[in-house]
User: Fold these one by one.
Assistant:
Number 1:
Amino acid sequence: MAKKVFIDGSEGTTGLRIYERFEGREDITLLKIDPELRKDPAERKKMMNQSDITFLCLPDVAAKESVSLIENPDVTVLDTSTAHRTESGWTYGFPEWKKGQREAIAGSKRIAVPGCYATGFISIASPLIQAGLLPDSYPVSAFAISGYSGAGKKTIAVYEGEEKPQEFNSPREYALSQQHKHLKEMTKMAGLAKEPLFSPIIADFYSGMFVSLPFYTELMNGKPGVEQIWEAIAAHYEKEKFIQVMPLGAEAESNGFIGANACSGWDGLQIFVTGNEERVVVTSRFDNLGKGASGAAIQCMNIVLGCEEDKGLQL
């Protein structure tokens, strides 16, 4: 029997991408709300409590309100907002994060889908901490560049509008106060003792991103070299379908460059280990709308349903 799915916030970028990914799926029946009632609490409450699975594609405050409207204990909630990612009682929706996480997702009714920057950051820092190579006290820094689609409808409209400001033609660094909303999630889920220095950049391309973490090997446990760092990350993601640890030197295929938009439209994540014996840079590359948002949400739903994890996704 097909599962009933409701998307609260289906007009946003993430909600629309989730909606599109259900095309042709006979195991899903979408509950559709009257467009004029999509912000009506009573109608949303009815839809959510009728569903087997509800996706929340909303701002944080609205996501918390939606959860409060759910009275049916059988409803599984997948929240794509920041609201519940570090909250007790919620399961973090990153199946590859650590041993047993996939099983935790499968048995959960409250799943918080990771943020895009957090996905890239945790995919690198967490395996190194779990392997004992990266001390939790390491002064971690990260820089990242993302397409503008992750910034929401208003920003997308500016980038694609006829009166786009000149500065929007160049990469723009933001969150300069070191208060980015993903920092709490990045710190807790990676297992760090303190928040990292984080410099995100938005650029004039639609989707795709990378997150890079530079390390001084002398500050890591045992002063590991490039190969040892690569081996630890590769071992962590061995046999994982959604994460590809690229061979050492793979960046040479692109003349030594790692393009941020190369994974646009793809739902997996690539990891590159580069550098030398003293300074290593580890980079994760993926689609901010794929493994960084809607693709990750669908992957978690597939785990809950017990079907192939890549069903409806592009790998």
Note: The mean pLDDT is 95.
Number 2:
Amino acid sequence: MGTMRADVNNNSRKLVAIASSTGGPKALQSLVPYLPSNLNAPVLIVQHMPAGFTEALAGRLNTLSKLSVKEAAEGDVLQKGHAYLARGGRHMNAVKKGGRELIHYTDEPPREGVRPCANYMYESLTDSEYDEIICVVLTGMGADGTAGIKNLKAKKKITVIAQNEETCIVYGMPRSVVNAGLANKVMPLTQIANEIIKNVGVI
């Protein structure tokens, strides 16, 4: 075998799960393009948006980014170095099927007043094969993400990164996570991509 790199444990299966709302599209453009194409994890993104707007946002992020970004489609297989943006108007989950993790949409009523709701995404990961979930909570109104992360933490090893108040358009969702005592790191938006890379490594 010979040249195993010892700096990051590549055997550990990791996933990055991002929640954002008000001010989120702009925040995502300051984060996702700074992630490398060889990121050792898939990236799930729930941005509160109505149906019809998420495809354009995914396209814009894909143009700006090194990793592949798409509006997640039903049945998409999660792959490292790829980012999947939840479709507006539906709840995005990750489900296990035949030894793989797939995107699965559901149509429960809005939760926290929103659909897609990040809480559902976080909770769907409790039964996943991933060893560690890097949860990132960006600018947004309300408290979406907090309950889901709390429930995920009961089952999985998680690292929670919250965007700091100074760089948020609306310091609601990150504040909720911080107040719940769930945030491991609170940092400016410009530092979050590096923190993700530090936590998941590259292939």
Note: Helices lie at 24-29, 54-64, 118-124, 146-153, 173-179, 189-200.
Number 3:
Amino acid sequence: MGVLSSLFGKKDKNMDAQEQKSVPETKRNTIKAPTFHLKGKPDINGLYPSELVMLAVAERYSITETQFSGYLTYTYEIANPLKMLKDLQSRGFLKIGSPIDVLPNLKLPELKELATALNTTVKGKKADIIAQLSGVDEETLGKFVKERSWKLTENGEKALKANPYIQYFLDKHNYNISEVGVDIWSVNEEFVKDPKRPYRDIIYRQLNNQMNKASIAFQKNPMSGTTNTHQYCECYRIMGLFVEEEKSYENASDLYFQYLFKRINIGAGLQLLINYQLFKNDKKYQADSIKRYYDDIQLYPFHKTEILRLLDELNITGDAIRNALITSFKRTGDSGIMSVEEATDFIILELSGDVDESRDLSYKLAKRAVKKLK
């Protein structure tokens, strides 16, 4: 039997009559083509993650819209947004909105022009003008507002309320969990199994699992490169920022500070030591590796912003900052190129803008570390 026949239940043109007869009649009749479906797992309403995403953003679009945001396709695999919207309408999750429903989608100049035509207040903020226009009877307003937008039905609102993780992925965050292998599809799969479980617990657990997975990977094979060590460290950063959203600032800062220490000693430090050993016959490369160590551990502007924001929320200054860093660094149980106290000095120098001193410190400690390899 040919490939086409085995995969799709179609007869191969090259299959002779005798070969066809050898297949039992009952078996030939039961072979079916594969059923294609959207990615992920459907909820109790039969809605897949991409459909729920489309439902969540539907009210931003008019019913005649043909140009949709690109992220709907490249992030959520929605190939035809308009077709999906119409399908959601046919299934009772969307309806065509009233003229009033269109108002929030109009720009301020358009609202002012409409307000002038209807003799309502044109002064104030956008919300003020919309409030005035909403008082106009629907029939009159409809004569001026020809466009219509999509509107959630009661069933549509219930569906989104039952899947709160969808809005999380549409909201903006100071981090990107997909960078470490946690995405809407993995969260969807766990959420469908237990819809009563808080979705943030699912996300945190998956972040922790990804961190453990990366840790096991580079411990089994230290020579595997930077992918696993980077993911391991980055998981700590993301978990810290994730917890920060819940206003648990002590836990958030502890995770973030551990990330800093691991970034210094595992993310960059381990790679320096490995490269130094691998290229023991290339003195120039070894020297460059020592200098490059600082480039790999320096604090970038986004690091400083995140650290200072956490410190501000903790409301600590001076020696309290040093003590907080030391406490978290010790909790990691890690060791490497920098000790707890040395890493603390490095971070404080970086935060203070004393870059020359922090660079010199990193260079000095890197040279000390590689000497122990000889």
Note: The radius of gyration is 29 Å.
